Amino acid sequence: MSFETPDTVTGRKENIKRGIYILPNLITAASLFAGFYSMVATLNGTYKTAAIGIFISAVCDGLDGKVARMTGSTSKFGVEFDSLADLVAFGVTPAFLMYAWALKPFGRLGWVAAFLFLICAALRLARFNVQVDTVESKRFVGLPTPASACMVASTVLLFYHFGWPSSFKKLAILVLIYLLAFLNVSNFRYNSFKDPAFIKRQPFGFLLLAVVLLIVVVSEPVVMTFSILLLYTLSGPIDYIISWPRRRRLEKAVHKRREAMHREGDTS
Asked: Which of 89, 117, 162, 172 fits a disulfide with 57 by CB distance 3.0 to 4.6 angstroms?
């Protein structure tokens, strides 16, 4: 049990009186609003609108941090507010959408899957907040919650795009939710796309490839968005498998070096 002294309370009041930065927190509020509106759309049975709301929330989530850094308006309040907004927009909202859209017929197995998605998103966000200063910025540990939420939303839009019947989606969606929940709390590494090299000079062929990719995405936005998100979701496990031999060689080299140092210590 902790007790607050008048000095600590006064210190907190002084910090609050300093005010908060409006612009980045307003964008975070927009992300939270989009997530809430998505839940309202789910209640009304307009699942396509609910899926679009998740994408809007993800766009706002990507902007608030960049705006805060560009304007020098980062704050502890903004970080905490953003984390809470992410839990609603990328945890509660997609779990609620998936349960109402596809998982309800599964009964207990369905709502357990939805709750597992939510709790894993919460754990992923908590781990990110704890490790934000200790892990490399170029890589995320575990699938980011905005990516898993957008994967859910793109799946809904894909079914609407092809006009697949509701009876076609049951088992695949259940497996997808369990997979996304596992990847959220896994130790697989995902590219954060924060590498400064991306904005530096690139070969001319890289520009042509980007233009072609943009044209393809614009021509089939639903299919390509789903495909890109699926590739990103699977990139963590694929990278882990590909880099397995290299990690084994590195572990063996470290083990041999430790044995050599141990033998040198015994002889001395």
From this structure: 89
Domain tally for the chain? Answer: 1
> Alpha carbon of 159 to those of 156, 172, 173, 246: distances in Å?
5, 12, 11, 40
The answer to whether position 236 is within a domain reads: no
The full 3-state SS of 228-250, as one line of letters, equals: HHHHHHHHHHHHHHHCHHHHHHH
60 band by pLDDT with thresholds 50, 70 and 90: very high
CA dihedral 194→135→225→78, nearest 10 degrees, is: -80
Residue 168 lies in a domain: yes
pLDDT in tens, 104-128: 888 899 999 999 999 999 999 998 8
Looking up residue 164, the CATH number of its domain turns out to be 1.20.120.1760
Residue 149 lies in a domain: yes
